[in-house]
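Example 3.
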Amino acid sequence: MVLSRTSQYAVQALIYIATQPPGEPVLNRDIAERLSVPAAYLAKILQNLCKHGILDSFRGRLGGFCLREGMHKTTLMQVLLLTEGPDFTKSCILGLKECSDATACPLHAKWIPVKKKIISLLTDMSLEDLAKAVLTGKYRLSDLPVSLLPA
Amino acid sequence: MVLSRTSQYAVQALIYIATQPPGEPVLNRDIAERLSVPAAYLAKILQNLCKHGILDSFRGRLGGFCLREGMHKTTLMQVLLLTEGPDFTKSCILGLKECSDATACPLHAKWIPVKKKIISLLTDMSLEDLAKAVLTGKYRLSDLPVSLLPA
DNA sequence: ACTCCTAAAGAGTTTTTTATCCAGTTTACG
DNA sequence: CGTAAACTGGATAAAAAACTCTTTAGGAGT
């Protein structure tokens, strides 16, 4: 039902970065605090997103992480294909390696329409959309109550 | 997108047992071979299903595992609540502990309808239904090609 | 040039999940 | 009875996922 913790952290962090003024690098430390997530682990995840061209990183003073130019339009699906692996959309609910119309598990027929809904949902949502939603103040990215959020 | 391997094995095994003549205990070894799954590990999973009243087990010669009386109607949801834990249906896609209408993650509104579809799918499918589907010969429970299935 | 602040990189640790092993108990059957 | 076949339960091991630590390197300000 859920994603790996790595994917959750990646998505949360990307949305958070997308809510920040573009061009101003965001510190790993600040993201970790804001999401109450282990900083060293998050750093690894962000590095990986850099390698794959979603983020830019800057070292030294005034350093940090920024969404790369144009990457506000990145969809959740694009992110999850990186963090969950390229077979993310191919998974069979029973774990079969091969589960197509030809060689189907007994759940296949019922599962496919639901899976399509999930995929289109993930493909429709961009970081920009989600960041805007968060900026309305109606939604949260972490379990921290709003009153305890770092300034 | 997927279930734990433990859940996958549990569901596969239960469906397989449901395809076998009721009252005749099925050997753990046979199930493991049929699904090409580690036998010792599967045994633990089956024991757990016994503890929770879905299966009956019999020791000694002519021993094995049977669906408990009336348990052909067991739904996938009932099984997954055991194998994935009682919070299985409560999970937030971003991993928030609290993600309700009041305290929602930015995906919440779009995710809920999909989640409902998943839940009703899992709640509608019984072991009996799935076993019947398998018995038609159109579906498979493991990656083994039909030609290699143990007799 | 020097120093401080940052990410990068790699190795190492801990925890969870998955898988194995073995000695013990139960049962059927000869 | 005795033996082989089957589950049981506890301990253990291996693999994967989550997380940490330490060192290195690069950029900004003085």
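Chain A has six helices and two strands. The first strand of chain A starts at residue 55 and ends at 58.
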